[in-house]
Amino acid sequence: MSDSHIQVTASIDPCGLDEHPDCGIRDVLTRVGDKWSVLVIVELASGIRRFRELQRGIDGISQRMLTLTVRRLERDGLVTRIVYPTVPAQVTYELTSLGSSLTHLVKQLADWSLEHRENIGHSRADYDAQHPAHEIH
Amino acid sequence: MSDSHIQVTASIDPCGLDEHPDCGIRDVLTRVGDKWSVLVIVELASGIRRFRELQRGIDGISQRMLTLTVRRLERDGLVTRIVYPTVPAQVTYELTSLGSSLTHLVKQLADWSLEHRENIGHSRADYDAQHPAHEIH
DNA sequence: CCGTATCCTACAAGATACTG
DNA sequence: CAGTATCTTGTAGGATACGG
Prior knowledge:
Organism (chains A, B): Cryobacterium lyxosi
Low-confidence stretches of chain A: 1-21
InterPro entries (chains A, B): HTH_HxlR, WH-like_DNA-bd_sf, WH_DNA-bd_sf
Helix content of chain A: 55-70%
CATH superfamily of chain A: Winged helix-like DNA-binding domain superfamily/Winged helix DNA-binding domain
CATH topology of chain A: Arc Repressor Mutant, subunit A
Domain HTH hxlR-type (chains A, B): 23-121
Order of helices and strands of chain A: HHHEHHEEH
Shape of chain A: elongated
Protein name (chains A, B): Transcriptional regulator
Distance between the termini of chain A: 32 Å
GO molecular function (chains A, B): DNA binding
Largest sheet of chain A: 3 strands, antiparallel
Oligomer: homodimer
Largest interface: A-B, 75 and 73 residues
Number of strands of chain A: 3
């Protein structure tokens, strides 16, 4: 019945995720999945940026959230933060090699979502049409 | 200085993400990034599952959250839900081909996080040691 | 310019009880 | 078994004001 999935199974669960749900993946996924991290990573993939440049490049992000996001990325070793003791202050952000290695995966997710967004959109419309009562987001 | 990033730049932003932040990627990322979706996808990558089987396979998920998660995945066309009119009720869940195509990306994220988890762990420890006052998660 | 400090709200998610 | 229906709570994230 499920023979076609067995190969996938063997490789999708390299760390016994079924028994150990937190082999680190949720950690990464919550980081990648939060509202701004990926956009910051994408922005930094274009090169080194200052704080204001980042904020201008990321539509809608507040100062607070940019600070928090960029600090978490720094803490995880994905981003380097350099403070120049000038007046006024000047701070630059840049992806580390670890951060850069994530951009490839992010790019694939972006490509996937781009490729299937219409598909998903139709699916949602169909579902909503057939389940008028329910409210799901 | 940033010459090494130019190639990445060209491919990381296939849809002008800088100007159009919502080309669909955030949609996908918030789905992938929520607390349970990926674990459900991983579980279903092993084959067809019933509701209870899913819940037993995913440690800590509540009935409510499993229902919500699986409904959203169904709505997005990633999962097929089949209700058998038996008594008691019997419902099965299975990945669609679209859903299966996501498992590959999820697997790569899992591999990445597995490969770099120690790295990240050390980075965090270092950061926390050097910034004793701050509390970042 | 680059943040920190507060305050506030919305929503994700848990706990629990009940139903076809 | 496979859900719904409530109620509650934690926390992510927004708005705003101030500081080095």
